[in-house]
Design brief:
Layout: E1 73-78, E2 92-99, E3 102-108, E4 119-127, E5 131-136, E6 150-151, E7 155-157, E8 160-169, E9 174-180, E10 185-191, E11 194-195, E12 200-204, E13 209-211, E14 218-223
């Protein structure tokens, strides 16, 4: 794996802090074009802000040829849950779901509160089944990609399929939406050259408590809880 420039990471979300909630995205009639199996998305300047762009060099995500992790602790995400991560304020990944197996995956740096807030985010996502859709920039363009940002196409690997990403994010959201026909999905997440599962936030079922995995790679399934 290539060398990466490293940056000091700020701490995790402070208990009781008032940060902007990450809202689960909703379907929209006008959305960024979905990426089909075998193709990649590397925009040339559209969307987002120029301060989020950068030169990325980890298009292989977690590593060239990596297959589905053979060992990963599993967690259950609450459909409709939110997490307290504000764009440009708290470094981290945020995963939400609008329906079972229907995800929005975003990440952001903290340049609004730190002068060296540029952060390089990269990694890989797997399913043992099929990714039935992939929308770089998220449904409704909620996490637009900038020049130099990269989201791979849906790739066939041993035991299933895989998606890689590699972007810089400072004050806004980067990311993508995806759906799958099989859970759990598996993540291996990096920031500035190191695994950082403690900066991956999701609302855990059934209570919606903001949770971070203990280690990376890890596995996520979604669950809708009847409020009645």
């Amino acid at each position: 794996m290539q060398a990466h420039r490293s940056r000091a990471l700020r701490g995790s979300v402070a208990k009781g802090s008032l940060l902007t909630l990450v809202l689960a995205c909703s379907p929209a009639s006008q959305a960024p074009p979905s990426v089909q199996s075998g193709t990649g998305f590397n925009p040339t300047g559209s969307g987002g802000t120029s301060t989020d762009s950068g030169t990325t060099g980890n298009h292989a995500g977690a590593g060239t040829g990596e297959s589905i992790p053979s060992s990963a602790r599993g967690y259950t995400l609450l459909v409709g849950g939110t997490v307290p991560v504000g764009p440009g304020v708290q470094v981290g990944y945020a995963l939400t779901a609008t329906a079972p197996r229907t995800y929005q995956f975003r990440w952001t740096g903290d340049a609004r509160v730190a002068g060296d807030g540029y952060q390089e985010f990269y990694g890989s996502l797997w399913t043992s089944g099929t990714f039935t859709s992939l929308t770089p920039g998220c449904v409704d363009d909620l996490c637009p990609l900038e020049s130099g940002d990269y989201v791979s196409g849906i790739q066939t690997v041993s035991g299933g399929q895989r998606i890689d990403w590699d972007t810089f994010a400072s004050t806004g959201w980067d990311g993508f939406s995806f759906t799958t026909d099989t859970e759990p999905v598996y993540f291996d997440v990096f920031i500035d050259g190191a695994r950082h599962p403690e900066l991956f936030y999701f609302a855990e079922a059934p209570t919606g408590t903001t949770t971070t995995p203990a280690s990376s790679p890890f596995a996520i399934s979604s669950e809708a809880v009847d409020g009645g």
